[in-house]
């Protein structure tokens, strides 16, 4: 039995049958009961899959007819597996491995389970080992899931996931789970805008703050596949793994392959409780610097596009410093040959006309202004019109007898190749060192096509898995060599957001769509799995360059304050009044930043369910509530906003109005809505502070905590 903070995961080793049977995943139960619980099985007949849905890790072989977690092809062309249990090993206090192998063939697979402390998440992965000799030949892994997650018996199931496209990511959808196989995934070589590697399942009666929900995710940044299976007999389970059909992995004798981690959790506190549990897991066990507050950044992209120069960037930097930015990021267009998106990618030295003195004078001025210095890079891509491509056309993903497809006038460099990742590390090291770079915005602006490799043969399609692993090696080495370097992951917006990339970066660019109204829906879907602390959000110009919508500055700021605040407008065109208002709002964000980035998030009113949208963040003695009204409609007044997660017996003071309420009142009756400006795109921000704590027997009287100093980023030192 694996115990989490509020639940249990129970499995049973069946040595006689040569398999591992699933017993229970959900609320906690006594070990004595778990030992004696009967195993559920279908009616036994010649058409039934007697193992289907009951095993921890189903394989292709025997009376198993559901989608397998493991499917192989041996050297003689045969596929069926016959598992047998070798051992159960306690590796650490929270890490158990069950070792299995085929009864006669040269393949072993080890099921790993780990329960990180202080949470509800169970982490699972699988390791495969070719145990034979050269005479046995290679083994092809056709399906190689990280985990299979069996679910308990319920009369019905509902599936929740996010869908979308470029600039419309994170559209949350809940729908009934049909009998059969429902598969979400990406064949694109990266996580993708169109789906994200997680699903949630509930028994059709779960709400935001009540009821059972099970979440399965995958910490992988390449192609992926998650399949929910529901049988006519009532068994339901979820397979999660890298790759997709056709992306086979070859194991040579003695070879090993370890899958990506699949985190799973159960919550009895609804979708909101599941989200907060996963947020806590990411902050405690995944993010590189979980307690570090993310700085307010300024990014030059929507101000200057490709028309960058030393002079216009310095002018923007000075205005950004006035507005209170702590990090200045020079975006695309700074490097040699980059006149537009048709040329220059791959030639990562400063543009001689735009930056005739190089980048160091700009970096020095940004640091003099009290900000950190950041750069946009796209190391995994190349334009055909570049010196790199002319020297190494074989480095791109290609098939020799096929026409290479260009998307956005660029091709993908094969990061599964050591010579390519070695080249990338070399120029990145020089760039960071020579220009005192504190921050990289790491972009990735197209999906895979012609995804073969230089090796060809059965290994050709493994680039869908190995490219991301090459990326991880580059990021790991960069962070080890430059421990103060911070990195934002971007892929045309939210095309590479997952727990794998978040273990190596500090934040992600949520979407290329910076429209403040559209962002409310995108950010709502993002928050289902990922915390506000990693969600980069910008205030840009109005009308918005993508949608043409006109939105007041206050609403744009309040929308972006729900995550990691950034500014991306052309500040040289902002009036003095707008710049002054922006500076005031930045100061407000710095005051609430710790609450937003470290606090527990409560989705009070989701976008689209009514005229108002609201989200709450609570951290220790402070609570922040953001309220938006995108459009105005005539109707009855909105009721008070019922808050969550407060201490019922404590009192809370509105830091701006001075009014006080008890926690019980704010949760039962609700927070009286503040006055919103008239018209569309109105918003408000409420700051509450706990001023009287509920009395505890023998407790020391509570006193006001000291203010936390503002976060700063020092210049990079190698």
Q: Could you explain how this protein is built, in words?
A:
By secondary structure, the chain is α+β, with helices and mostly antiparallel strands. The chain is 20% helix and 28% strand. The chain contains 13 helices and 36 strands. The strands form seven sheets. Strands 5, 6, 7, 8, 11, 12, 14, 15, 19 and 20 form a ten-stranded antiparallel β-sheet that branches. α4 runs parallel beside α5, α7 runs parallel beside α8 and α10 runs parallel beside α11. The longest helix has 23 residues.
Given as residue ranges, the uncertain stretches (5+ residues, pLDDT < 50) are 699-711, 713-718
Shape: globular
Straight-line N-to-C gap: 47 Å
Spatial extent as radius of gyration: 27 Å
Distinct helical segment count:
13
Helical content, roughly?
10-25%
Class of secondary structure makeup? alpha+beta
Compute the number of strand runs: 36
Largest sheet: 10 strands, antiparallel
In terms of DSSP E residues, the strand content is 25-35%
């Amino acid at each position: 039995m694996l115990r989490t903070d509020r639940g249990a995961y129970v499995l049973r080793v069946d040595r006689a049958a040569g398999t591992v049977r699933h017993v229970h995943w959900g609320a906690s139960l006594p070990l004595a009961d778990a030992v004696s619980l009967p195993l559920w099985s279908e009616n036994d007949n010649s058409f039934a899959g007697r193992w289907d849905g009951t095993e921890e890790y189903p394989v292709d072989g025997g009376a198993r007819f559901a989608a397998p977690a493991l499917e192989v092809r041996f050297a003689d062309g045969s596929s069926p597996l016959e598992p047998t249990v070798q051992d159960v090993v306690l590796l650490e206090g929270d890490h158990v491995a069950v070792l299995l192998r085929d009864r006669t063939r040269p393949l072993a697979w080890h099921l790993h389970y780990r329960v990180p402390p202080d949470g509800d998440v169970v982490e699972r992965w699988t390791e495969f080992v070719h145990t034979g000799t050269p005479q046995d030949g290679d083994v092809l892994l056709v399906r190689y899931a990280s985990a299979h997650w069996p679910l308990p018996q319920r009369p019905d199931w509902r599936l929740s996931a996010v869908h979308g496209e470029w600039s419309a990511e994170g559209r949350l959808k809940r729908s009934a789970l049909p009998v059969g196989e429902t598969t979400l995934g990406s064949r694109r070589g990266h996580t993708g805008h169109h789906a994200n590697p997680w699903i949630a399942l509930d028994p059709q009666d779960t709400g935001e703050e009540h009821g059972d929900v099970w979440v399965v995710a995958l910490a992988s940044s390449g192609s992926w596949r998650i399949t929910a299976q529901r049988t006519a007999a009532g068994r339901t389970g979820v397979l999660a793994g890298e790759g997709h059909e056709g992306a086979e992995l070859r194991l040579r004798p003695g070879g090993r392959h370890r899958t990506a981690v699949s985190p799973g959790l159960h919550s009895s506190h609804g979708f909101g409780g599941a989200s907060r549990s996963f947020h806590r897991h990411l902050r405690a066990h995944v993010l590189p610097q979980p307690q570090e507050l993310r700085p307010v950044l300024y990014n030059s992209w929507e101000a200057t596009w490709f028309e960058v120069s030393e002079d216009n960037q310095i002018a923007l930097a000075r205005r950004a410093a006035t507005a209170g930015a702590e990090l200045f990021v020079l975006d695309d267009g700074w490097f040699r040959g980059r006149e537009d998106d048709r040329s220059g990618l791959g030639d990562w030295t400063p543009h001689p006309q735009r930056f005739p003195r190089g980048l160091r004078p700009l970096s020095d001025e940004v640091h003099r202004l009290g900000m950190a210095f950041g750069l946009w890079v796209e190391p995994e891509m190349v334009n055909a019109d570049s010196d790199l491509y002319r020297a190494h056309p074989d480095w791109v993903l290609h098939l020799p007898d096929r026409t290479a497809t260009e998307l956005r006038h660029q091709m993908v460099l094969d990061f599964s190749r050591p010579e390519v990742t070695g080249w990338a590390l070399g120029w990145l090291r020089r760039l960071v060192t020579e220009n005192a770079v504190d921050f990289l915005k790491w972009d990735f602006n197209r999906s895979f096509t012609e995804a073969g490799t230089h090796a060809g043969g059965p290994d050709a399609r493994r680039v869908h898995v190995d490219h991301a692993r090459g990326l991880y090696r580059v990021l790991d080495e960069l962070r080890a060599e430059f421990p103060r370097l911070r990195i934002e992951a971007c892929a045309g917006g939210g095309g590479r957001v997952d727990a794998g990339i978040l273990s190596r970066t500090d934040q992600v660019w949520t979407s290329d769509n910076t429209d403040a109204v559209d962002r409310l829906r995108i950010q709502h879907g993002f928050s289902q799995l990922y915390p506000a602390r990693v969600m980069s959000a910008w205030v840009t110009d109005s009308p918005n360059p993508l949608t043409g919508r006109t939105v007041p500055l206050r609403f744009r700021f309040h929308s972006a304050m729900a995550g990691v605040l950034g500014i991306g407008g052309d500040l040289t065109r902002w009036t003095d009044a707008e710049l002054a208002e922006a500076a005031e709002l930045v100061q407000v964000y710095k005051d609430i930043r710790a609450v937003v980035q470290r606090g527990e998030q409560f989705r009070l009113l989701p976008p689209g369910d009514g005229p108002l949208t609201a989200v709450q963040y609570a951290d220790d003695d402070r609570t922040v509530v953001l309220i938006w009204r995108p459009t105005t409609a005539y109707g009855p007044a909105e009721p008070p906003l019922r808050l969550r997660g407060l201490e019922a017996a404590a009192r809370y003071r509105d830091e701006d109005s001075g009014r006080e309420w008890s926690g019980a009142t704010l949760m039962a009756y609700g927070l009286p809505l503040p006055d919103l400006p008239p018209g569309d795109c109105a918003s408000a921000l409420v700051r509450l502070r706990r001023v009287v704590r509920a009395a505890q027997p023998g407790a020391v009287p509570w006193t006001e905590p000291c203010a936390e100093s503002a976060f700063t980023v020092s210049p990079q030192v190698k």
